[in-house]
Model the fold of this input.
Amino acid sequence: MAGEREKTFQFVVVGGGIAGVTCVEQLFTQIPSADVALVTASPHIKAVTNHKQVSRTVEEFDVEERPPSVLEEKFPTLSVIHSAVKSLHAQSHCVETEDGRVFGYGMLCICSGGRPKLLTRGSPHVLGIRDTDSAQEFQKCLSKAKRIVVVGNGGIALELVYKVEGCEVIWAVKDKAIGNTFFDAGAAQFLIPSLEADKPQEAAPCKRPCYTTEEPGGVQTFTADRNVHKHGGSANPGSALGPDWHRGIVLRGAEQVSRRVSVEYQCEVVKIYTPEELLHSAEQTLKPESAGSWPVYIQLTNGKTFGCDIIVSATGVVPNTDPFLPGNSFALAEDGGLQVDDHMMTSEPDIYAAGDVCTACWEPSPLWHQMRLWTQARQMGCYAGRCMAARFLSEPVEMDFCFELFSHLTTFFNYKVVLLGKFNAQGLGSDHQLLLRCTKGQEYVKVVLSGGRMVGAVLIGETDLEETFENLILNQMDLTPYGEELLNPNIDIEDYFD
Ligand code: FAD
Done:
């Protein structure tokens, strides 16, 4: 049972990440005098800056860490409580913080994010990157490292492998191609040369592109000249972990090489060994020549064992639900997230959730799916704030348009990347057709068609196609008459559909 309440707020938001901060901002936009508490475990809050609406659903922004006082100055009726929530008492509508205080709420929004799935706990040589502190910890360890193993195939792994210099990188991916979370094998083939060569190669666009789904066949090794890749910026310990989290940080190892990346495809981790464990292991086959000389060893399902200085676990996040579950009866999704409905409401009364901690369990638009990204954390936080305010004001609220179409703008390997709709033909089975255009080193354009209608696209490079394709996806025009002309580089497609 919780102790005596210090205060009861109309709204309590837990978490100072993008979702929580956006939710707070939205509450104040609709109810300027709202009585709101933001309870956050981190000393800084994350703020969205330089927000730019690129098209109807595609947006671009930076994320900065700021002192919470910035929010308090902006919203005089906001109380920022610097402590982690220790427990939630959903029935009596209150939260208890680590420092022993109890706060009541009328409505609560849980935006506690996620934490990296770690391969193992307690090893100083196995790191997960989540926030500024962990990024700096990695940077420190890397400066003495000669070889690291990166496990994972999502956005963090992609950027990390590209960014790390002065150190051998072994990259273990469970799929047939790199970047499987975001791309297909064709896009991966387009990006792979960026790990070895650096100057974009000039080549004429080819309508039928160099697309291969062949298995990469075990290991691919690339070595780049140290002078070729220059990454701007010096070490900046204060820099925020935003969509460009790696830009402000120098990720350099102890070696002279610029980059040496070996990709181990289609494998997962069997076991992580200390040098002693490896030496005394009964499985003699595990012992590589260098047994005992590395601080940590990793055995993969492809039968190989590598010694290295650091293992980076970049295999996704687990929703941060632990403090909220005991004593309550939240419906949880398969991925461990708090289930939310089309008003961002959990299964517990008056409790909403947004961002990485939640799992969207409404019937989604055929062109939208959840991915744990900044963009969606912002959109969900904003929509949760709108829903809470609307309920408070007894006003109706409609589903935000951003949930009509999945869109994500980011950069990988220095290329602008726009992903739209079912960009990887997710859930379409064989009922789809792909159109591709690729200019090596310059652009990669993939369109996913279903029943002659565009349902998704991957745009890598400065294609300038995002707005037109977004419109074509949203209006579901029958594109059958246009056939392959749709991607003819000699046709100005924007004029075509004007
Ligand atoms: P978070 O940003 O994790 O915020 C959670 C907040 O809750 C924190 O303030 C935390 O302190 C607080 N909290 C947690 N537990 C409690 C508690 N018990 N009590 C009180 N407060 C608590 N996405 C992209 O779109 N593009 C990218 O390029 C990209 N790069 C990434 C790189 C890295 C290294 C990582 C780790 C993630 C990246 N992501 C990227 C994903 C993105 O960071 C997340 O989707 C986004 O931060 C989720 O926002 P959130 O507000 O839900 O959670």
